[in-house]
TrEMBL record:
Keywords: Membrane, Transmembrane, Transmembrane helix. The chain crosses the membrane at residues 7-30, 63-83, 90-112, 124-144, 165-189, 195-214, 223-243, 255-276. Residues 301-319 have a biased composition (Basic and acidic residues). It comes from Pocillopora damicornis (Cauliflower coral). Residues 300-319 are annotated as: Disordered. This is Uncharacterized protein. The keyword Membrane applies. It comes from the Eukaryota.
Length: 319
């Protein structure tokens, strides 16, 4: 009998891999010195033309190599599902559909930005944000439902490789979406550059606060091992402050420096929390093992003593 759910999931995995491979090819063409395949300018040329105070240094965009490598790694991991007798259910077909839509949005953004259609690209970058966080939600929900059935290896790989990899991607794209918002306000709505950047930084500050509250309250267990958001923010703020030093208003400089300090503090706190949680789990496991041994040992002595007594009584009866 054909397992339609398995076939559907395998098709989603393969299609996701194909689309992301096409995206990598398109990104290479978009950043090639000879220009994009179907456009007029490369992505780097357009970004330099529409610069704002919140633009990071050029070397900051090297993070895309990390994003692509990390994403390729977990896509190859999911490809192994096809060859397993029992396919893990933590990552549903809807997860792959959401991530594929994020990939398609990225491809559209790459193409339209080469034509300098800035307003259209803003829509696609916000679409990327929505689909990436939707895929994250699917992953976390699947892990929660399958927490008693999924193997230890798959549990940790999904946490560390899939979830943290998508968070790196989503964090960078979220900041890019806010930069795009500031760019639209500056170049197409006549708002002063300083004010538009202040608005974008204010929204980013709000999002960091909301994420911090959620990961320490409602979704504390789900987001415990999701730690890559803060290193990405630190990377972005450092690159932005260095590039725009003495060229940014005092207010926006102070906001970026404050956000950098907050991101560093939260990152240290997150690492400390994870280490403390792991140590406590090890202690609890060791304590339960010691308690189990204490309960087993007296029982064994009593059984041994009872057998010895029974044997003595039987011997007396024989005598």
């Amino acid at each position: 009998m054909v397992d339609y759910h398995r076939v559907l999931k395998a098709a989603c995995i393969i299609f996701n891999m194909i689309m992301y491979t096409l995206l990598l090819v398109m990104n290479y063409a978009a950043n090639n010195k000879s220009g994009i395949l179907f456009g007029n300018k490369s992505v780097s040329q357009v970004i330099r033309k529409y610069s704002i105070e919140f633009s990071p240094a050029p070397y900051a965009f090297e993070i895309w190599k990390l994003v692509n490598a990390w994403t390729a790694a977990w896509i190859l991991y999911t490809l192994s599902y096809i060859f397993r007798k029992r396919m893990p259910d933590a990552l549903s077909p809807f997860f792959f559909v959401c991530f594929t839509l994020a990939t398609v949005s990225n491809m559209a953004w790459t193409q339209f930005i080469s034509w300098e259609m800035i307003k259209v690209t803003s829509g696609f970058v916000f679409a990327m944000v929505v689909f990436l966080y939707a895929s994250l939600a699917c992953s976390f929900a699947g892990l929660y439902k399958q927490r008693y059935f999924i193997g230890r290896f798959d549990y940790w790989v999904i946490h560390m490789l899939v979830n943290n990899g998508i968070v790196v991607y989503a964090t960078w794209v979220t900041v890019a979406a806010l930069r795009s918002l500031a760019l639209i306000l500056t170049y197409f709505h006549g708002i002063e550059r300083e004010l538009s950047v202040t608005i974008a930084l204010g929204i980013l500050m709000l999002l960091i606060v909301v994420w911090f509250i959620l990961e320490n309250t409602i979704f504390r267990e789900d987001l415990l091992y999701t730690i890559t958001i803060y290193p990405v923010l630190i990377w972005i703020f450092v690159a932005s402050i260095i590039l725009n030093l003495n060229r940014v208003s005092r207010l926006n400089t102070a906001i970026m420096q404050s956000l950098l300090a907050v991101s560093c503090t939260l990152f240290i706190g997150k690492i400390s929390l994870v280490v403390w949680k792991i140590i406590n789990k090890c202690r609890d496991t060791r304590a339960k093992a010691d308690l189990a041994m204490m309960e087993i040992t007296p029982g064994s002595d009593e059984n041994r003593e009872q057998k010895y007594t029974d044997r003595s009584e039987n011997q007396e009866l024989v005598d």
